[in-house]
Design goal:
CATH class: Alpha Beta
CATH architecture: Roll
Shape: elongated
Distance between the termini: 30 Å
Number of strands: 5
CATH superfamily: Hotdog Thioesterase
Helix content: 10-25%
Number of domains: 1
CATH topology: Thiol Ester Dehydrase, Chain A
Order of helices and strands: EHHEEEEH
């Protein structure tokens, strides 16, 4: 049965991340798991841009985001000192989920594409609705 989506939106955010030595293997190539770290940082900054802060969600609303599912496809490798561009798009928002797509580029070359669903849970690990202020913040863009 298809999931009911209460809201459909296209919100975009773009930021840059430099590849440091710690991000690479001995050959200077970015370790595969670090693409997920780059994407996580970008998602956090995107939410911060819309005044949605992780600490506030946790302390005032008793919720946090978890990765419900994720698919990543790698196309090319990033290397030491590359300046990567992470493009993040919120595709759909429901009462307890955010569906996103993220693409990681070096210059204009696509390196990796990530499809991710974030779920909202309370601090006891149970699914929880997103606060109205989150939905309203994302609705006003």
């Amino acid at each position: 049965m298809p999931q009911k989506i209460n809201k459909i939106s296209i919100l975009n955010y773009e930021n840059n991340i430099r590849v440091y030595y710690e991000d690479t293997d001995s050959g200077g190539v970015v370790y595969h798991a670090n693409y997920l770290k780059f994407a996580e940082r970008s998602r956090t900054e995107m939410l911060r841009k819309y005044k949605i802060e992780q600490e506030k969600l946790k302390n005032y609303y008793d919720i946090q985001f978890v990765v419900k599912n994720l698919f990543i496809e790698y196309y090319k490798s990033a290397k030491l000192d590359d300046l990567l561009t992470i493009k993040s798009s919120i595709l759909k928002i429901s009462s307890a989920k955010i569906i996103m797509e993220q693409s990681i580029y070096n210059k204009k070359i696509l390196l990796a594409k990530i499809d991710i669903t974030l779920g909202s849970i309370n601090l006891r690990g149970k699914p929880s609705r997103l606060p109205k202020y989150v939905l309203n913040s994302l609705d006003t863009v």
